[in-house]
């Protein structure tokens, strides 16, 4: 599948590039996409939630009132969960939310996500560019030229580029990553994917490994 290569002003360079049908033109596997997105979101959870249970509360162990004759239920400890300030019954404990998926399924999910975006005509190929210094204004000009000013966009670079990354960091709707950081969630979460020429070889290499 041929795609026109654009410059940072949004104009065609007169060149086109062939995108692999094995990566951008497969029949999307929705279940693989679901599993990969589910894993990504699970890994965002810290799992550090914790509340103190009865044995962990600091307090006196003295019996707080006599056993009989008060007209109320018997009570032995101020740390009981039924009292204000007592321990919590079955409170949350630290937990590891990580999930395991095999590499082939994750590759299938990412190829499916890229194919979905290709079908939606939401993928742009732009020639590699750089800035002399980190400037948010320069990156906003690129977004405006590409018609992505008010859309969620994901820029995929071949290699890390500090000036481009820092220029985009203050913009809420845009994210810049390298091809090795490409995930199913990030692909689907963006309205448009901007692939720099230098990223294409790495993406295809990563997703067509056996």
> What is the gyration radius calculated from CA atoms?
27 Å
User: And the CATH topology of the largest domain?
Assistant: Ribosomal Protein L4, Chain: A
Q: In the CATH hierarchy, what is the architecture of the largest domain at level 2?
A: 3-Layer(aba) Sandwich
N-C termini distance? 22 Å
Number of domains: 2
Q: Describe the strand arrangement of the main beta sheet, using strand numbers.
A: 2-1-3-6-4-5
- CATH class term of the largest domain: Alpha Beta
Helix content: 25-40%
Low-pLDDT residue intervals, each spanning 5 or more residues? none
DSSP strand (E) fraction?
5-15%
Give the class from helix and strand content and strand pairing: alpha/beta
Layout of secondary structure:
Layout: E1 2-6, E2 12-18, H1 21-24, H2 30-43, H3 103-119, E3 123-126, H4 136-145, E4 153-157, H5 162-168, E5 174-178, H6 184-189, E6 192-196, H7 197-207
Parallel strand pairs: 1-3, 3-6, 4-5, 4-6
Antiparallel strand pairs: 1-2
Helix pairs in contact: 2-3, 4-5
């Amino acid at each position: 599948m041929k795609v026109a290569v654009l410059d940072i002003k949004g104009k065609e360079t007169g060149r086109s590039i062939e995108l692999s049908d094995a990566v951008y033109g497969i029949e999307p596997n929705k279940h693989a996409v679901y599993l990969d997105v589910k894993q990504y979101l699970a890994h965002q959870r810290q799992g550090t939630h914790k509340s103190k249970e009865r044995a962990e509360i600091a307090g006196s162990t003295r019996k707080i009132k006599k056993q009989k004759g008060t007209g109320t239920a018997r009570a032995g400890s101020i740390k009981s969960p039924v009292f204000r300030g007592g321990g919590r019954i079955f409170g949350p404990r630290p937990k590891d939310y990580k999930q395991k998926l095999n590499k082939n399924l994750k590759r299938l999910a990412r190829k499916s996500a890229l194919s979905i975006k290709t079908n939606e005509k939401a993928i742009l190929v732009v020639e590699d560019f750089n800035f002399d210094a980190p400037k948010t204004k320069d990156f906003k000009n690129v977004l405006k030229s590409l018609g992505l000013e008010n859309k969620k966009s994901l820029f995929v670079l071949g290699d890390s580029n500090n000036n481009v990354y820092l220029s985009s960091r203050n913009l809420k709707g845009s994210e810049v990553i390298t091809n090795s950081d490409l995930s199913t969630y990030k692909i689907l979460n963006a309205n448009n994917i901007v692939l720099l020429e230098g990223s294409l070889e790495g993406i295809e290499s990563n997703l067509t490994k056996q």
